[in-house]
Amino acid sequence: MRMWRLAILMMLSACAPHVATIGRAAAIKAAWKACDDSWGAYGRRQFGAEAQPFDPSGWYAELAGDHWHVWTGSRELPGYEVDVPLDGRPLVPDETCGMNFQD
Asked: From 26, 49, 55, 59, which residue has the greatest number of CB atoms within 10 Å?
C-alpha cells in the first residue's frame, strides 16, 4: 500500500505548477546557454568557431515584470537580447535568443 501512496504523490507533484523564481545570476546563465546553443552552435557548425566558456561579465539583467530582460553590450546597442521568465520555464534557444545586427 505504501508504494501506491508514494506513486500517487510523485504523480501529483509532477503535475503541480512550476513556481521557481530565478535570480539575476541564474537568468544571465540561462540566457547565455540559450544563445550558445543557438548562435554559438551555428558558429561552430558553419565556421568552425571554438566553444567559448561562460563569462558573465559582459551580460546584464533587469527585472521587467514577469521576466528578466537580459542583454550583452550597451543598453542602446545590445548584442544579444533574451527574456527569461521568472517561473523557470526552459528557454527554446532558436526562438529566445535575439541577435541585433549593427549596420
From this structure: 59
CA pair distance 91, 17, nearest whole angstrom: 17
CA 100 to CA 103: how far, in whole Å? Answer: 10
In this prediction, residues 17-44 reach a mean pLDDT of 87
Q: How far is CA 43 from CA 15, 37, 39, 46, 49, in A?
A: 38, 10, 6, 5, 6
Distance CA 64, CA 3 (A): 44
Q: Are 47 and 36 in contact (CB under 8 A)?
A: no
Q: What is the pTM of this model?
A: 0.75
**Residue 1 in this model has a pLDDT that exceeds 90:** no
